[in-house]
Amino acid sequence: MKVEFYGHIRQYHNIKAEIDGNIKEVLESGQYVMGPMLKQFEAELAKYHGTKFAIGLGNGTDAIWLAMMALGIGPGDEVITHPNTFFATAEAIWIAGATAVFVDCDTQTRCIDPAQIEAAITPKTKAIIPVHLYGQCADMKAIRKIADKHKLYVIEDNAQAIGARGDGFKVAELSDAATTSFIIQKNLGTFGDSGALVTNNEKIDSTVRKLRNHGSNQRNVHSFGFNSRLDDLHAGVVSAKLKHIDAWNDLRRKWAARYTAGLKGAKSFTLPTERNGYRHVFHLYIIETKRPEQRDAFLKFLNDSGVDAKTHYSIAIHQQAGYPWGKGARIAGSLANAERNAATCISLPMFPELTEQEVDYVVGQCLEWDRKA
Ligand SMILES: Cc1ncc(COP(=O)(O)O)c(C=O)c1O
């Protein structure tokens, strides 16, 4: 049996009429950039998050650094995040010209460990970027408290967790802005690149809206800016998909529960945990081998048996060759948990359109490995 890692084509076939309908509507409108479909989608996305504003952007990386730029964060400033995230989180800090400060992650969730943040704060610190890693919110209540105490901005990198909730808080509720990515493989993904930012802050909204469009919100009138727009065709795709995101996240949760029930009792690897009161949306279902030296052999065993397992992310940012490429970077304290995560993680296939047979096959292969390990 073969189990793919992604189900893009199955998903397209399931809602083909809705996606095709929106694409046709855009094509027939003659307005493909900054047109009515983008406007409609931005309103839908803001409503979904319960925020005043949503801005469609070129990708999720731009969304992070545009938020920083709107907040006046740049050269000479420090921004705290953790190194076991997708590279783009740190990359965005560097694109903004700021210094990335890495602290360790939590042992359970692998999101940023709030307990490590305060010791990393200096007079240069301007912001914290928690990542809602793998589909589970970081501990935003603790992060908000630290940010208030030290007067710091908070930008949530929500590329992996659209539809997730914390214990009594929503995404974008306890921060200045939350950013997201709609690249193909995300929980809400289009057939290419794009992203967005949601916020309740009017200044961030008006500044990013101009910055994304060559510094312009009026024809022929410009200030310094960029080109980072979500085009209407992609807006049409994510608009069609947004209507299904909660049901798809429920399916992800169902498959995660089936993996967890099937794999409970395995001795050679640990399973992901969901914090009490949180809604984890399982962008990724990550297991970790107890011994780092077992990871690559286990991954190969799964791949050889037809399971397209992967790793997210097997090289922590501060361990990448050439780090930090002449950019501002600082390591604050031990990064042992992040390094362990990088050395032991395996991502099992996870997408809403999986079948019971596929999930059970993956479970069976993992248990077979466990018996031999
Ligand atoms: C945590 C995280 N941050 C940022 C990004 C960047 O998004 P994009 O690829 O749309 O630039 C991604 C995904 O690619 C991500 O997973």
Can you walk through the features of this model?
This protein has twelve helices and eleven strands. With 373 residues, the chain is α/β, with parallel strands linked by helices. It has an eight-stranded mixed sheet with strand order 1-7-6-5-4-2-3-10, with helices on both faces. Strand 4, helix 6 and strand 5 form a beta-alpha-beta unit. Bound molecules: pyridoxal-5'-phosphate (PLP).
In short:
With 373 residues, the protein is α/β, with parallel strands linked by helices. The protein is 38% helix and 12% strand.
What keyword list fits this structure?
373 residues; 3-stranded antiparallel sheet; 11 strands; 8-stranded mixed sheet; globular; 12% strand; single chain; 38% helix; binds pyridoxal-5'-phosphate; alpha/beta
N to C succession of SSEs: HHHEHEHEEHEEEHHHEEHEHEH
- How are the strands of the biggest sheet laid out side by side? 1-7-6-5-4-2-3-10
For the largest beta-sheet, the strand count, sense and barrel status come to:
8 strands, mixed
SS elements, strand count: 11
Which structural class fits the helix and strand makeup? alpha/beta
Mean pLDDT: 98
Q: How many helices in DSSP terms?
A: 12
Overall 3D geometry?
A: globular
Low-confidence parts: none
- Which cofactor or ligand species appear? pyridoxal-5'-phosphate
Assembly classification: single chain
Distance between the amino and carboxyl termini = 22 Å
Radius of gyration: 21 Å
